[in-house]
Amino acid sequence: RRGFVQRGGAPGGAVTCMPPSIRTCVGCRQRGPAAEMVRLRLRDGQIAVAPSEAVGGRGASIHPRALCVAGAFKTGMLARAFKRPIVPGIPPAAFLEQLTVASRNRKLGTP
């Protein structure tokens, strides 16, 4: 079906059609498919790119765009998403580069 994602794992090995996962970007507050965003998490009190969707705990999603990174850092949206004060470990420009690489790797299927 159009707009739906095929996922396996149904009883009997059948493939089911499910709507794509929708997330809200912490930078621009726009909703969209999780596949278009990069998942973030806290590691040792600092923001880090989550290695996969399977990482547990509180997380946040963000588009790999300069506008979204600036919005997330400037407005305190990351602190709100993680429900604790956030101390950025790197400047926004370097963080954007990490997001871009993570997004590219995700599309290519590499870790």
Topology:
Elements: E1 5-7, E2 16-18, E3 22-24, E4 31-33, E5 38-43, E6 46-49, E7 59-62, H1 66-74, H2 77-82, H3 92-108
Antiparallel strand pairs: 1-2, 3-4, 5-6, 5-7
In summary, what is this structure?
The protein has 111 residues and is α+β, with helices and mostly antiparallel strands. It has helices spanning 66-74, 77-82, 92-108, and strands at residues 5-7, 16-18, 22-24, 31-33, 38-43, 46-49, 59-62.
Can you characterise this structure?
- The model has no long low-confidence stretch (mean pLDDT 80).
- Helix 1 (66-74) crosses helix 3.
- The longest helix has 17 residues, at 92-108.
- The protein is built from three helices and seven strands.
- With 111 residues, it is α+β, with helices and mostly antiparallel strands.
- The protein is globular, with a radius of gyration of 15 Å.
- 29% of the residues lie in helices and 23% in strands.
Biggest β-sheet: count, sense, barrel?
3 strands, antiparallel
In helices, the fraction of residues equals 25-40%
Classification by helices and strands: alpha+beta
Q: Please state the overall shape, judged from the principal axes of the Cα atoms.
A: globular
Cα(first) to Cα(last) distance is 29 Å
Q: Please, how many helices?
A: 3
Order of helices and strands: EEEEEEEHHH
Strand content: 15-25%
- Assembly type of the chains comes to single chain
Low-confidence segments, given as residue ranges, are none
* DSSP summary, beta strand count: 7
